[in-house]
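Methods: example folding runs. The two proteins below were folded one after another, and each record is reproduced exactly as written to the output file, sequence line first and C-alpha cell line second.
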Amino acid sequence: MGDAFAIERMGGLPAPSTTGGAGGVRELTWLEFGAVINDLANRISERFQPQVILGVARGGILVGGALAAPMAAEFLPVRVEKRSRDKRAVPTFKVPEAKGKKVLVVDDVTNSGETLGKARALALRSGAREVQSASLVVRPGGSRPEWFALETAQLIVFPWDYQLDASGPHGDPGSMGV
C-alpha cells in the first residue's frame, strides 16, 4: 500500500469491495503488480519464449514493458483502435521487428478479446513465426488469452490509474521521492 503522503495527494483510495471476490473494487499495488508480473513471466517462460512483446496501448504498454525485462524480449507498444466507421478495422501498418519471431501480444484487461485479436492479426500480418497472447486480468465468461494472471469480475484499480497532481501543495511528486 502506498504511503499516507501519496494517498493524500491522490485523493484517497477507492472504497473496498463489500461483495467479496464476485464484484466491487480491488486495488492492485505496485508491490502486488510486481509479484503478479513475475509469476506470469515465469509461467509463460516455461512453455513459450517470445522474442518480441507487443503491448497494446494503453494498459498493455505497462504490462508488456514489465514482462519484457524478465523474459529478455524486445518490447514494442502498438495501438489497435477501431475506426469509428468500421468496427472491425485492423491496423494497416506492420511491425517489422516481428518478422520471423515468436511474439507475445499483451493487454491489461481482456473481456471480449477483440483488442488482443487485432494485435494478434497485426503480428501475423507482420510475419511473426508464432503468436500467443497474455492479459493481466480476464473476466469470468469472457475471452481467454493463452496466458493471464487474474480472473475476476471486480473492477481492478491499477497503480498507474492514479493521477498524481503536481499542482498540489507539495508540488512535483518526483521532487518528494514518490
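Second run, written to the same file directly after the first:
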Amino acid sequence: MEAISRETMPWQLRTRTLELGRRTLVMGIVNITPDSFSDGGAFLDPEAAVAHALQLLDEGADLLDLGAESTRPGSRAGSPGGPAGSAWAPAVSADEEQGRVLPVLEGILKARPNTLVSVDTYKAATARAALKAGVEIINDVSGFAWDAEMASVCAEFKAGVILMHTRGRPEMWRAQPQLAPDELLATVRAGLAASLAAAAAAGIPPHAVVLDPGYGFGKRFEENYVLLARQRELLSMGRPLLAGVSRKSFLGRTLAPLHDGDDAPIEARETASVAALVAAILHGASIVRVHAVRPAVEAARIADAVLAGGREL
C-alpha cells in the first residue's frame, strides 16, 4: 500500500521563510466587505474587523487573509477597467479597496506586530499599498491574469504570492460548460502553469509561490469533488498547495437532501467545511483558508497525525 505523505518545501515571504508541509497552516479569513457570500457586512467597520482578526489569531490562525472585494459568483470582480459606474468597471475601485483594507491592516499590525498578513486582491495598486504597509503575501485569485502590473509589483517587494486558478470571471461562472475529469485537471494545471510562467517572467522565484486550485472559482458543483479527489496530482508542479473550501456552494449543494432539497445555507455548512478541509490536507494541501479557525485547527491536527502515521509505513 502506498503511504500518504506531504513533502516539505520553503515559502519565501518578504521578511521570513516558512517551511510548508511539516504541519498544516491555517489561514483565517477577514472579509472587509458588505457583500461577501459568507459574512458580508459583519466586519466592514475597521474596529470590528480588527477585533475579529485578533480573535482568529487567538483561536490558532497561523496567518490572516484580508479581502475587501467579494469574488462570489456573479460579481463584477476582475472586470476590465472602465469609467466608474459603467458595466465594465470593477465593483470595488482600487481606492475603495485600499480604504477598507489599510486601516484594518494597520490595526492588526499595531496590536500584533509579528502577524503574518496576506491581502486578497487582484489589483496591483492595492497590492503595492498593502506591501508598503507591511503585508508579507499577496493572494491573487486571478493568478496574475487580471492586472498586467501585479506580477512586477510582487517581484519589486519580494512578496510571497498565492496564485489561484480561476476559470473565467465571476459573472461567467454559472454558464461554464461541464468538463470531463481529465479535461478539468488539464485546465487547472494549464492555468496554474501560466501563472507560474508569469511569475517567473517578472522575476519572482519559484520558492515565493504557493498554488491554489481555486475551488468554486469557475468550477461546476460536482467538478470541485473531482478536483479535490485528484488535488495531489498538482503537487507535480513543484509548489505547495493552498485549499480554500470553507463554506463553498458545492458543499451546500451536496447537503441539499438534508435541507428539504434546498442548498444548505451558509450557517449549516461548517461540518461539511471541516470534512472537505481534512480531505484537502490528506490530498496534499499545506495551507487551508477558513472562516472558522478553531475547528480547522483541531481538524488539521488530526489530518497531520494521519500524514505522520503514513510516513511511518
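Comment on the second run: The mean pLDDT is 91.
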